[in-house]
């Protein structure tokens, strides 16, 4: 193991423990080598090489991405929104400093600009160094990076109708920390304002049905108080505590059918995807009975 001490690593195992977010349970990954540990202006940042999941990015003690399973998250949070839209040209990513979502966004030839608003430059720099498979799109000519708080960016932006975004992806960390504002009604109002009339928003929900159904229901209620379409779906990621992560999908157009791939992936597009396909797009919205009742009160 590398020589950097971290409170988060004991006896050669990284442990993700949070009584608030994951009461009574946790996740452990065997560490081969600590590659980086520091406190940036915004958060505690740990990068380590794991025994079986490749390099791992951890922010404030919570796993953000591992090289082995990151595609399950990046592909679903990106392509569910992108393929549910007829012709996404302007895409905004809030957070996403590891670059994985940008990598997925620019797989769509119809995209003209992809803007990423990340609060913490250190995350981008570390991704370029230790997660090159994720950070490979930062140099693309369609990509613009703004180092800024995403909430403030949206609050300050006077976006003219022709500058509105077709897709906005909130690829943030969890609510305890710099991403707290992304889980509240005011944020959904800012998203609504920044979105084109047929635009789609997708956001990581920070929770899953096994952890906190009340939280998910409140989040969907907040989203539904702003957007006529507000749905919950999920992806499976073994290195997120209890193995899955929820996504909230919203549309401005009440007739939008976000459950379906409106545009079918071409054979060339599909050949670049390892997790997403048309069938899993629709299946991701199908919930177990008890969770469906609780989230949608039906
Ligand atoms: N896939 C991850 C997950 O949910 O576990 C999230 C990806 S991680 C790259 C999230 C990024 O959001 C971090 O780089 C963090 O710095 C950034 N972030 C957090 N709060 C932010 C804010 N207020 N504005 C912009 N970016 C923010």
Automatic annotation (TrEMBL):
One cellular component (GO) term of this entry: cytosol
PROSITE patterns assigned to the protein according to its UniProt record, in alphabetical order: PABS_1 (PS01330), PABS_2 (PS51006)
InterPro entries xref list: PABS, PABS_CS, SAM-dependent_MTases_sf, Spermi_synthase, Spermi_synthase_euk, Spermidine_synt_N, Spermidine_synt_N_sf
Residue ranges occupied by any PABS domain in the UniProt entry: 11-252
GO molecular function: spermidine synthase activity; spermine synthase activity
Domain of life: Eukaryota
Keywords: Polyamine biosynthesis, Transferase
GO biological process: pantothenate biosynthetic process; spermidine biosynthetic process; spermine biosynthetic process
Record's keyword annotation contains Metal-binding: no
Positions of the catalytic residues: 171 (proton acceptor)
Family, as annotated: Belongs to the spermidine/spermine synthase family.
NCBIfam families recorded: MFS_SpdSyn, PRK00811.1, speE
Name assigned to this protein: LADA_0G05886g1_1
Organism: Lachancea dasiensis
